[in-house]
Write a structure and sequence with these properties.
Length: about 650
């Protein structure tokens, strides 16, 4: 269990009590903890009945008769888009759903009524292509409002969407489309990124050579560059929706019908299709979005600066905020384009009140310097959020002082693709925060830090993070692989959900999440499996063997470092080093490009032949090597250590 580094994470003596502005709600929110603790099923059922408009209200709460295949509100009927759009029209159809800011500077404002019409037209268009309830639709787009429209159009007609992050490669599209046998692929001609175009349609064209299940490809025109359109297969979005009615009867969905699948990295090379169903997921995201961000839908301008291609965007750009009739900002591009004050200029322009972003971004802002936020009036902000990786106290304090003007509470939210919604977080107005701690489980959620035997550890100790009771937005399974679902999440300790994170409980029972303890890396808040990168590397003709580790990195939390043994007869060179790094980026996507590759004649293995990743990680982090007596060939370590020192020297030069 990784417990080095705890000391510099812990600042248990620095307390940030609730601010005056929020104090008024403290009593009401504190009561929620009691309610959740007394009966978590009753608590969530109340949330489900109060926050969702049902066609048929559920009588059931939790069905645990076939654990760990839990069901929630199973006899209820609803449609997610009715809840996210239709029911708001009467009260506020003219209210802005999305203030969208394009990277080149173009902007659009989309009201709830316009969203209703756009979603319905596309939903009708999808039906005209033969898409029906239960069909799978893959979506590979940039951050345009139409990405949300595409997801919602699927949900409208009961099709299951699977969003593929626009930074992934053609091969990643193939894996994901093939796994679900998606019938339709929705994409854009291209996406803007730092002033240049990512060729999304071109990647789809390459992918579609190997995805026989895809019958049609719908293409939204964003960047206007030339793309090839295959007759009979490819259709322009604008042609598909032209003439379609802006009314579309929503499909009546069962509470446990599949809403979407989102792939995430696990400990093998094959990504897992995480399954989320209709009512439990919507209950989870609507409740947590309202509570954790203290949403005042009349006045807030909320901005989750994540990408919709990840779960953060699914839950807290699309489904949660829309269910709560919130006005959101969506920004298409990167925070440093055209200048490093882009985020702050958008906050000033739209009067953003709530900002939710990742520690990696915050550390980049710190590095760029306070001059950028100082150029803008950020006083509209009243609440800040953090997600995706542990936030180091330095970054927390910087965020608090320079972005939050020392008055905005910070919610450090721990959750996962699998959990669907926020699990561990302060509630603004109730929780005294400590920089670097996600504090404690929210109402209705029960988290525990346990030891090897699955027993809760004492305050002051570290262990494994688990969730001890089921919750509505939990994953239902892994697409097509129930066995892997049981094995990955429910087999470490009987009855406990295994999060894969290490954590420490402090003397006040606050949780400090320390990061992954499995072979999953967290690079800039994105999960990448060591095995995925290793298998990409060994697919190159020059590579005999590869071992990949996440090394500590000041900016991105972790960075990918690869140790590579070349095939005999292949000479190492800087060109080959570059080529291999590019190769990984082509295979998986630019986010998986190793920061450095170290050539080594051998890899350190235990006597049983397992690569000693911990040792490699320690070497990268420059730690002491600890016990290496199980090494088959101790010389390998000496070689690697020397090469790592060399690589570091040349990095510094
Ligand atoms: C992993 C889940 C949840 C949306 C984004 C990531 C790490 C997430 C925190 C946090 C410390 C965090 C964990 C977790 N993580 N939030 N507040 N503090 N670590 O979703 O890609 O499924 O990754 O991200 O290691 O297991 P994901």
């Amino acid at each position: 269990m990784a417990d080095s580094g705890i000391e510099n994470l812990l600042h248990e003596d620095r307390l940030f009590p609730p601010s005056e502005e929020f104090a008024a709600q403290a009593t009401a929110q504190a009561a929620l903890y009691d309610e959740g603790e007394a009966d978590f099923v009753a608590y969530w059922k109340r949330q489900a009945l109060e926050r969702i408009t049902w066609y048929k209200e559920p009588t059931e709460g939790l069905d645990d008769s076939n654990a760990p295949f839990y069901k929630w509100f199973a006899d209820g009927e609803l449609n997610v888009t009715f809840n996210c759009i239709d029911r708001h029209l009467e009260k506020g159809g003219d209210k802005v759903a999305f203030h969208w800011v394009g990277e080149p500077g173009d902007t659009r404002t989309i009201t709830y009524r316009e969203l209703y019409e756009d979603v319905n037209r596309l939903a009708n268009g999808l039906r005209s292509l033969g898409i029906e309830k239960g069909d799978r639709v893959a979506i590979y787009m940039g951050m345009v409002p139409e990405l949300a429209v595409a997801m919602l159009a699927c949900a409208r007609i009961g099709a299951v969407h699977s969003v593929i992050f626009g930074g992934f490669s053609a091969e990643s599209i193939i894996d994901r489309v093939e796994d679900m046998k998606s019938k339709l692929l929705i994409t854009c001609d291209g996406a803007w990124r730092r002033g240049s175009v990512v060729p999304l349609k071109e990647n789809c064209d390459i992918a579609m050579e190997s995805t026989p299940s895809v019958e049609h490809c719908v293409v939204y025109k964003r960047t206007n560059q030339a793309v090839s359109m295959t007759e009979g297969r490819d259709i322009w979005w604008h042609d598909l929706v032209a003439g379609e009615s802006s009314e579309c009867e929503p499909e009546v969905m069962g509470a446990e019908d599949l809403l979407y699948v989102l792939y995430t990295s696990g400990t093998t090379a094959k990504p897992k299709g995480i399954m989320h169903t209709t009512a439990g997921y919507l209950t989870g995201v609507a409740t947590t979005h309202a509570l954790v961000f203290d949403i005042k839908s009349e006045t807030d301008v909320y901005w989750c600066a994540a990408d919709i291609g990840w779960v953060t965007g699914h839950s807290y750009i699309v489904y949660g905020p829309l269910a709560n009739h919130t006005t959101s900002v969506i920004y298409e591009g990167t925070p440093d384009y055209p200048e490093k004050d882009r985020l702050w200029s958008i906050i000033e322009e739209y009067g953003v009140t709530i900002l939710y972003t990742a520690p990696t971004a915050i550390r980049a802002f710190m590095k760029w310097g306070v001059e950028y936020p100082e150029r803008h009036d950020l006083t509209s902000l009243r609440l800040l959020g953090s997600v995706g990786e542990p936030i180091n106290p330095e970054a927390w304090i910087w965020y608090h002082e320079n972005i939050g003007g020392t008055v905005c509470p910070i919610v450090d939210t721990w959750w996962q693709t699998e959990t669907g919604s926020i699990m561990i977080s302060p509630l603004p107005g109730v929780t005294t925060t400590k920089p670097g701690s996600a504090t404690k489980a929210i109402p209705g959620i029960t988290a525990a830090v346990v030891n090897e035997e699955g027993e809760p550890v004492d305050p002051g100790s570290g262990g494994f993070l688990t969730i001890t009771e089921p919750w509505p937005a939990m994953l239902r399974s892994i697409y097509g692989d129930d066995e892997r679902y049981v094995e990955t999440y429910w087999s470490q300790h009987a009855g406990l959900y295994w999060a894969g994170d290490g954590a420490k409980l402090d003397e006040d029972n606050y949780l400090w999440i320390l990061g992954r303890i499995d072979d999953v890396m967290n690079i800039a808040g994105h999960r990448i499996s060591t095995m995925e990168v290793e298998s990409a590397l060994v697919s190159h003709a020059a590579v005999a063997e590869a071992a990949v580790v996440g090394a500590t990195d000041d900016l991105t939390g972790q960075a990918i470092v690869s140790f590579v043994t070349l095939r005999s007869g292949v000479d190492e060179s800087d060109e080959l080093n570059d080529e291999l790094r590019k190769h990984v980026a082509t295979k998986i996507g630019p986010i998986a490009r190793p920061k450095s590759i170290i050539f080594t004649p051998d890899l350190p293995k235990t006597r049983s032949g397992k690569i000693m990743r911990r040792l490699l990680r320690d070497i990268c982090d420059n730690r002491s090597l600890g016990d290496i007596t199980t090494l088959a060939d101790a010389d390998v370590v000496a070689t690697i250590t020397a090469q790592q020192a060399e690589a570091r020297r040349s990095d510094e030069e």
